[in-house]
Design a protein that fits this description.
Length: about 230
């Protein structure tokens, strides 16, 4: 009896320390979110956030007002096959222009980042043909993918074009892991940024190929970790 009580207490304590799942999107409004970097439009339609590309706009991001450090993040996404997208996490929004010195493939590179330009970790949302969905790209900073997917056949095939795809991101310290439709994808260590906003990207579309492509998100929730 004592053993069972101790075990029950430990399990309850572990669950409490991990925190409860919190909805980042209430299904009705964009309260707690704001648009940065570009002019793409974001509206709520039938419990879904719909982001639409705008002619001449650079990459746009609908961002949380709150920052997060260690967490589990889950969401579902459906994107027009012609539109590349992604979800930022542990990312930054500079109020003033800044210059960052970062290491890219063993060399120090300076990146000039305009005010309001979202930068940082981004989980990739792309067509199944690219095989990159679920990988993590360093948007606006190092501008490289941070994991090697060349030997991850299952991860490269996990994303389904034209369908709702479920993503999961786990950040704990320098450990970053992702899953696409339950398939393990990225798994690496990186500690350039340990805390930041979450942002929903609508990628820019070249003028000669422009259409009002859309990306949609639903069931966005987060659980903060101790």
């Amino acid at each position: 009896m004592i053993t069972r009580l101790v075990l029950s207490f430990m399990l309850a304590a572990a669950a409490a320390s991990a925190g409860d799942w919190i909805k980042l999107f209430d299904g009705k409004t964009l309260n707690g979110w704001s648009v940065h970097s570009g002019k793409a439009t974001y509206v709520v339609e039938n419990g879904v956030i719909a982001g639409t590309a705008v002619l001449g706009s650079p990459n746009s991001f609908l961002c949380t007002e709150k920052e997060f450090g260690d967490f589990n993040l889950e969401f579902e996404v459906k994107v027009d096959p012609e539109l590349n997208s992604g979800v930022q996490f542990r990312s930054q929004i500079p109020r003033e222009p800044l210059a960052l010195k970062v290491e890219v493939k063993g060399k120090e590179v300076e990146r000039k980042i305009p005010a309001d330009r979202v930068y940082g970790y981004q989980v990739e949302i792309a067509t199944s043909k690219t095989g990159n969905s679920g990988n993590v790209y360093d948007e606006g900073r190092r501008a490289v993918f941070l994991d090697d997917f060349s030997g991850k056949a299952k991860a490269r095939a996990a994303f389904k074009d034209g369908k709702w795809n479920k993503y999961r991101i786990e950040c704990k310290g320098d450990s970053i892991k992702t899953w696409v439709n339950g398939v393990a994808a990225a798994d690496f260590k990186d500690a350039v940024t340990l805390r930041g906003i979450i942002g929903l990207q609508v990628h820019q579309v070249p003028k000669d190929k422009f259409k009002a492509y859309q990306v949609r998100w639903r069931n966005i929730r987060i659980r903060e970790l101790p």
